[in-house]
Write a structure and sequence with these properties.
There is one protein chain. The chain is an alpha/beta fold. The chain is built from six helices and five strands; from the N terminus they run βαβαβαβαβαα. 45% of the residues lie in helices and 20% in strands. Strands 3-2-1-4-5 form a five-stranded parallel β-sheet, sandwiched between helices. Helix 2 runs antiparallel to helix 6. The longest helix is centred in the middle third of the chain and has 18 residues. The structure holds 4'-phosphopantetheine.
């Protein structure tokens, strides 16, 4: 069985993430979405909320599960869950520059491979930061995020 980990902060999950995870689930028997605590980034949503939104979104997708990546190295997490690879989406050359050293370090540390999937053009402008900003300033992000996320974003402004 081939399994992959899709790691990220997902603060919050947007449709670009959803599309990459769905494509990963076509390539691997099992996909584990690993939601990073990532306290360096001062997330808008708690780890529990980010996990809940992702679980709700993928509840209908076979072979996709959502868990916390609360501490330690990604390579150790992947070994613990028996994953063969990490899958990441690339929107542009900045993503490539950001992701390549991490992919190379992970391979150096444990031989873990990273598979990069090019973002679909419909989603390559999306980022969690932009989604939050546009939403907070009154813009319509209904086509940018899953329902579970839109609801939580609206609640977070109340
Ligand atoms: O959504 P992000 O913030 O780009 O996700 C980054 C993430 C979670 C993939 C990265 O921070 C990570 O791998 N964290 C686990 C700690 C680790 O292994 N660090 C060394 C990476 S080479």
């Amino acid at each position: 069985m081939q399994s992959a980990v899709c790691p990220g902060s997902f603060d919050p999950l947007h449709n670009g993430h959803v599309e990459i995870i769905a494509r990963a689930s076509n390539l691997f028997d099992e996909v584990i979405v690993a939601v990073s605590a990532n306290m360096n980034k001062r997330p808008r949503f708690s780890l529990e909320q980010r996990i809940e939104m992702a679980r709700e979104t993928f509840s209908y997708v076979r072979g996709v599960s959502v868990v916390a990546l609360s501490h330690g190295l990604l390579v150790d997490f992947c070994r613990e869950v028996g994953a063969n690879a990490v899958v990441k989406g690339l929107r542009d050359d900045r993503d490539l520059l950001y992701e390549t050293p991490m992919a190379t370090m992970n391979r150096h540390l444990s031989g873990l491979e990273t598979v990069f999937l090019p973002a679909d053009g419909r989603y390559s402008h999306l980022s969690s930061t932009l989604v939050k900003e546009v939403h907070d300033l009154g813009g319509d992000i209904s086509e940018c995020v899953p329902r579970a996320v839109q609801r939580r974003l609206t609640e977070s402004l109340r």
